[in-house]
Amino acid sequence: xxxxxxxxxxxxxxxxxxxxxxxxxxxxxxxxxxxxxxxxxxxxxxxxxxxxxxxxxxxxxxxxxxxxxxxxxxxxxxxxxxxxxxxxxxxxxxxxxxxxxxxxxxxxxxxxxxxxxxxxxxxxxxxxxxxxx
Length: 133
Description:
The chain is 49% helix and 19% strand. It is of the alpha/beta class. A hairpin with a 2-residue loop joins strand 2 (91-96) and strand 3.
């Protein structure tokens, strides 16, 4: 059985033809899409990194210790965590009114929370800085 090569195109030829035709018309569209995707990705990453998260442990401590955080206190806590991170503190104690929070600034996460009753000894371990708000 003989097959004439002229009847069939190679994969490289077809790919080259397809990419030449498709590339000319859609390159600007692809750049616009990539740029808008990059913008969306950047904004999502920035908004996520600004949000202060609470670990499961911290959430349980808030509930078990009957700690309620007002919007104003939450804003101060977020600001304190941000300032600690800017100063290079990795594990920070952030004091807000009579509440104490241990915050991992790299992960932007509250690890644990205590109120004044639990902090009567005023001993905090595994931190490398403190912020009083």
